[in-house]
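G.,

No rush on this.
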Amino acid sequence: MTDTQAASGANTPQVNAQVTASAIPPEEMDRLTDGIVAALKSVYDPEIPADIYELGLIYRVDIADDRNVAIDMTLTAPGCPVAGEMPGWVENAVSAVPGVAGCSVTMVFDPPWDQSRMSDEARIALDMW
């Protein structure tokens, strides 16, 4: 199984692929990872003009050998009006990536999201310098 995690801190979300005896060839894993990141960047919080990846809302992405993807994500606030809809948006976007067999999203609130998780790109878009 391969574990790809969005790292916190340093203002830029990063995806680190750690291959642990994966049945997925490295080239395909790179392609899947790039496609998943692109899919995540296509999902926007409707109240904030930045995508969920650059906002730092993605905490974990796990690509299993059967190409099913499990994602842990959070929201900028637990009472977000689209809390019930956003996991479905993420599932649909990631499931559409060629080679992904399916996707499940788990909403987590630990650790709580804060502005330090945002990338420089998100900070520029939100004029938060």
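When you get to it, here's the other one too:
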Amino acid sequence: MGKLLAINISKERGTEKREVPQAELVADYGIMGDAHAGKWHRQVSLLSAEKIDAFRARGAQIDNGAFGENLIISGFDFKNLPLGTRFCIGDAILEMTQIGKQCHSHCAIYKRMGECIMPKEGVFAVVIRGGQIHTGDEVKLIPANIYASIKDRPADSRCELLTVTEGAHAGEKALYIDGRIRVASGSAWADEINDNDNSIVMFKQQIGSRPRLIICGGGHVSAALVRMASLLAFDIWVIEDRPLFADNAKRQGADHVICGDYKKTLARLEPQADDYYVCMTRGHRFDMECLTEIFRKPYAYVGMMGSKKRAAIVKKDLEESGFSRENISGLHSPIGLAIGGQTPEEIALSVISEIVKCKNERTGCTQVDNEVLDALIEASDEKYILCTIIKKNGSAPRGVGTQMLVSSDNRIIGTIGGGCAEAEVISQCRRLFRKQEFKCGLMDVSMNTDDAEKEGMVCGGSISVLLEQLG
């Protein structure tokens, strides 16, 4: 347990920070009123009180904030903690993202003392959860958890989870977000990973943020679409200008419902590359308002409900409004896969099927199972084996990146496809739990045509599964 001894902020960069008794930490931003706050990986700087005291003992006359540090905390040697370590201060949570920094110009302290401790001893963090902090607050250390970092990262960032599959470092992981390492598990090798180094065999798992499904309109098909999408990994938004229909969208399970003008609401939404838009308003005018706003943003998918004739009219109107044919060609209309849907539920099924098809073709990987992710975050004393498909051939049912957890007390969380192939992996996990030395290994599972027919399965193919013991 540590203690927060000082809070320092500055309104301009490059200036010494002044001490304040309290401050507001804002999630994915930093300290309110501080010049270094923003949407980047160095939102808050931390420095050990013990390191500052040792520097003062050598004759340095310095005030709190002189190094540019935001928080002075006693009880921790920050630079020797792994990236991803978290600190809880009151209700707020910080996560360490960088150790030290490069100084391009020597500060006044360096010129006076010949040294500055911030480049080596200072660390930087992002704000995972905001809240008020006060001088004198207790600071609790939360050990680094790579899976918590994945789950809590900003919605508009992307990351890769790198797993070494062979050699002395097999099973070690590193998490890269926006080109920077955020978490290294245990060893310094993660800072030196080189994709061209053939001595390190890595499995890269691209972790996409939960994509947003933004539905313009809250009618009967929209309600059915919300119900179906809630079974999948979408963050569901509904925009509807009629209060009665907006309330119904909430009851159907939408994560966010905004009752208001379509165009103004869309204009206020911060765009994300993983946005999937569906226009199913009550009229041509409203669809046009939505589409003219959507086409000004990045998106992964945009579809509009309507007949071929209506789609042709809308595309012509969009072109006359100044949008290019290339831009307009991205509109899916008539919307959905051609399954001959008649009822709201059948039409919604065709729409969500087209969106899932587009999503999987675009990302080229399987989304992390939230149930598996939650279990990995919460895992404590119990032992688990994490089973990840890293290679697939033929018609195996699940894709690369699919994961399953097998616990030492025979609990199974998630699935890598079911059937005999999954049962074989589970049996191997149970055998491996009895081996004290097991850490990580590859398992090839094949279901040829004869075996598949004999077991009554429709899938053949083969998978390579990475088995990693945790805990």
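The CA atoms of residues 448 and 454 lie 10 Å apart. The domain at 212-363 is CATH 3.40.50.720 (Rossmann fold).

Enjoy the weekend,
O.
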